[in-house]
Amino acid sequence: MRITFSLRSIFIVLALITLAGCATSPQERKAEAQMHRAAVLNAQLGIDYMNTGNLKLADEKLKRALDQDPDSVLVRNAYALLMQRLGKNDAAEENFRKALDLKPDDGDVRNNFGVFLCEQGKYGQAQKQFKSAWSNPLYNTPEFAYANAGICALNEHNDTLAKQRFHQALEKRPGFAPALYQLAKLAASKGQYQKADAYLGRITGAARYTPDILALCLKVKRTVGDMNGAADCARDLYRMFPNSPQARALLQTQ
């Protein structure tokens, strides 16, 4: 929740008065720095556990990080993402907003908060967060905010805006696989398989190898009559992601 200007000014003044009355000793500053480093380490461990699906350990590490440094934007952002994964939406939103209170111009938090809001169906609010992210010249990965804005536009059934955002993502980073995949998927849904094939052909290297991309590649290649290309996509899907829903679905159709 955004604090009004006058109330926020009062808080700032009170904080300054309090700080003026008690100087921090070198030992206290050293202890604070050590706690901050410990919080960052635990946050990173929590993020790693979250990425591998071990949400219980992720929760333990991130709660410890919060205890060590509740004013860390990194920790608040990571904990918000975990709460989002766990379906604890009130806690997720609270921590996203606390992170933004600490650092309003943080593009990563704005982008992540936008994704969360879009999942809640708050599309207008989500788009404002994405725009705040990509408008920040210090945000190093605006292509993610543009691509997420495009996906959110698709959720609103606004294909025109979605395509615009995906192309803006590609302007920032040509060859950006998430944007190319979404454009290919959108083209295929409209029966424009040659166009979809062209978009997929621009995805190269390791970025090509995801279950979604390979499954779409197989469908598109078959439709345009490129059976060798279809065989390559099927082989890679089976070989690299044998337990994926996409591979299992393909096996059922054979």
Share of helix among residues? over 70%
**Beta-strand residue percentage:** under 5%
Looking at the structure, the CATH topology of the domain at 34-103 is: Serine Threonine Protein Phosphatase 5, Tetratricopeptide repeat
SSE order, one letter for each helix or strand: HHHHHHHHHHHHHH
Structure description:
The protein is mostly helical and 254 residues long. The chain has a domain at 34-103: Alpha Horseshoe (Serine Threonine Protein Phosphatase 5, Tetratricopeptide repeat), CATH 1.25.40. 77% of the residues lie in helices and 0% in strands. The chain contains 14 helices and no strands. It is elongated, with a radius of gyration of 22 Å. The chain starts with a helix and ends with a helix.
Task: Explain briefly what this protein structure is.
This protein is mainly alpha-helical. It has helices spanning 5-20, 26-51, 55-68, 73-85, 89-102, 107-119, 123-135, 142-155, 159-172, 177-189, 193-201, 211-224, 227-240, 245-253. Residues 1-22 have low confidence and may be disordered.
What key attributes describe this structure?
single chain, 254 residues, mainly alpha, Serine Threonine Protein Phosphatase 5, Tetratricopeptide repeat, elongated, disordered N terminus
Describe the SSE topology.
Layout: H1 5-20, H2 26-51, H3 55-68, H4 73-85, H5 89-102, H6 107-119, H7 123-135, H8 142-155, H9 159-172, H10 177-189, H11 193-201, H12 211-224, H13 227-240, H14 245-253
Helix pairs in contact: 2-3, 2-4, 3-4, 4-5, 4-6, 5-6, 6-7, 6-8, 7-8, 8-9, 9-10, 10-11, 11-12, 12-13
Organism: Acidihalobacter aeolianus
TPR repeats: 39-72, 73-106
Keywords: Repeat, Signal, TPR repeat
